[in-house]
Amino acid sequence: MSNRLEHVAIYCKNINESIEFYRAHFGGQPTAIRKGAAGYSFCFVTIDGAPSIQLMESSDKTGVHHYGFISDDIEQAAKEFKAKNARILRENRDQSGKLTTIFVQDPHGLEMEIRSAR
Description:
With 118 residues, the chain is an alpha+beta fold. It has helices at 15-26, 74-83; strands at residues 3-12, 29-30, 34-35, 41-46, 52-57, 63-71, 87-93, 99-105, 111-116.
């Protein structure tokens, strides 16, 4: 089984200012801004083929929200995390009930998203 870093999600107070910063200083290419399920605006910024930065707008938070990984076998990844007593915060499933994403907390409280490839 393989897991690879796909993105780092960070809170920002003004998503448009953050987009412009990453565009001006790093040549970042943003996706369209969308609304998350929790109501926040977000987009992904790619920089020269590196894992993306996910910008998540928040009026009161800044800093890292989570690290996002892609797994080639999300069901197996979930089994292995559970077998090793990792703290699973939540599991997301599609409409058919198939597991698509798990959120795990590391020993210091940082959140990681592990999802199946799209």
